Amino acid sequence: MTSTPSKRPPSALRRLPLALILGAAVIGAFAFRDVLTFDALARHREALLAFRDAHYLLASLGFIAAYAAIVALSLPGATIATLAGGFLFGLFPGTLYNVLAASLGAVLVFLAARAGLGADVASKISARGGAVARLQDGLQANQWSVLLMMRLVPVVPFFIANLIPAFAGIRLLPFAVTTAVGIVPGALVFTSVGAGLGEVFARGEAPDLSIIFTGPVLLPLLGLAALSALPMVIKALRRKEA
Length: 242
Hints:
The longest helix has 38 residues, at 91-128. Helix 4 packs parallel to helix 6 (91-128). This protein has helices at 11-31, 38-43, 45-54, 56-72, 78-89, 91-128, 130-141, 143-152, 158-167, 172-182, 184-195, 197-203, 215-241. It has one domain. The protein contains 13 helices and no strands.
């Protein structure tokens, strides 16, 4: 007796998670633009600290879940959430919480995009050939290096960087690992800024987020990006010699 092959969910059902994320992103851009802000964090800082002190485990889990939702639904305020992680939990475990939450949110976006459109887009690109297909092949052949560079030097917006690999047919493991590793340096910087927010609040000032573009921070990030590109360079040189 032959077993019936499993059927894929209907196309509309597979695209529902991605549609919900895109819809939430549009709504959130207007509904939360005045909620997830530095001023809101400053106003509620005492209540947040009191809740953390009274319910540390619940505060930790709630923070990770809320931050992951902000990333997964592409709501405004991811930077504020990173600062809040440092303000509430210090450099450690604040950095760990920030990296875990941002990576989880990114993976959810990636999976939603891959289930909804990614597989179809990737197969159509391969079938058509041409320059885009060659670009896709190059990304797949050097996925670890390219994805890591994309995270270390975030020229591409975080949300777009979650979608491109899904549409290029990248596997989940390289995406998840390079995301978690690649955002660590930036998370360290912004979490450390958040850890010092108590003094900033006391002075009635706003944090200086331009620190990420200063030489002591930017140059090491560029160095790490160059190091992640080294395997691609070696592979290209070997191909020329062959």
